[in-house]
């Protein structure tokens, strides 16, 4: 990510008392070789590398007293929207919407897990704000800044980050702690977010800020 602009010392911009580390969709179906995407033969190494850094960020956030929030897709066939099912059919992939089904195991967290006092959000769509109480949970804690991580950069991380910006939250995207299954999509999404809504940071910079 050397060619993308990063904030080297975010410092007080991500002060722990008003900042939440957001972990988006680190779940079996999105991250594990045994999950739905992995079973198609997808290279899961980008996700694994991002989760390595997410684990370090979670530790740093907890030590610093920053809030940690876990977002998770939780679906049933009856919750699939008509728009989603129609789009899948029209693009020639009917049935592909069946991801993170409740009870399948694919909806489970992968390598990370919330602890008492963390924020948890169950969602049906890409954005963690859509149809959830996520904003209310953040406001109740006095949080105005989000440090974004997770899967995938181009989909749920992007959607949640843009919606956060529209709701007047300051957003930072940890470029090496989120991932896509297409490197070009990952980089292009980070470029667009940096251009329109967010500042980019690295894991090392955030850990340093929260360890100061």
TrEMBL record:
Supply one GO molecular-function term: isochorismatase activity
Q: Which residues form a coiled coil?
A: none
Query: Domain named Isochorismatase-like: which ranges?
Result: 19-204
> Is this entry keyworded Hydrolase?
yes
Q: Which UniProt keywords apply?
A: Hydrolase
Q: Which PANTHER family match?
A: PEROXYUREIDOACRYLATE/UREIDOACRYLATE AMIDOHYDROLASE-RELATED
Under what name is this protein listed? Isochorismatase
Organism this protein belongs to: Novosphingobium barchaimii LL02
């Amino acid at each position: 990510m050397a060619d993308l602009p990063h904030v080297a010392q975010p410092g007080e911009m991500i002060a722990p008392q008003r900042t939440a580390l957001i972990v988006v969709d680190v779940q079996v179906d999105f991250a594990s070789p045994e999950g739905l995407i992995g079973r198609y033969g997808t290279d899961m190494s980008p996700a694994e590398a991002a989760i390595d850094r997410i684990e370090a960020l979670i530790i740093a956030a907890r030590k610093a007293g920053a809030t940690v929030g876990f977002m998770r897709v939780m679906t049933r066939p009856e919750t699939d929207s008509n728009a989603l099912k129609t789009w899948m059919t029209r693009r020639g992939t009917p049935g592909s919407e069946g991801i993170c089904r409740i009870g399948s195991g694919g909806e489970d967290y992968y390598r990370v897990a919330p602890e008492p006092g963390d924020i948890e959000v169950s969602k049906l769509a890409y954005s963690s704000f859509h149809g959830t109480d996520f904003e209310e949970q953040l406001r109740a804690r006095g949080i105005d800044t989000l440090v974004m991580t997770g899967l995938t950069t181009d989909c749920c991380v992007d959607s949640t980050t843009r919606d956060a910006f529209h709701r007047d939250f300051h957003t930072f995207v940890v470029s090496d702690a989120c991932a896509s299954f297409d490197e070009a999509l990952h980089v292009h999404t980070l470029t667009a977010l940096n251009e329109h809504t967010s500042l980019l940071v690295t894991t090392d910079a955030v850990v340093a800020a929260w360890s100061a």
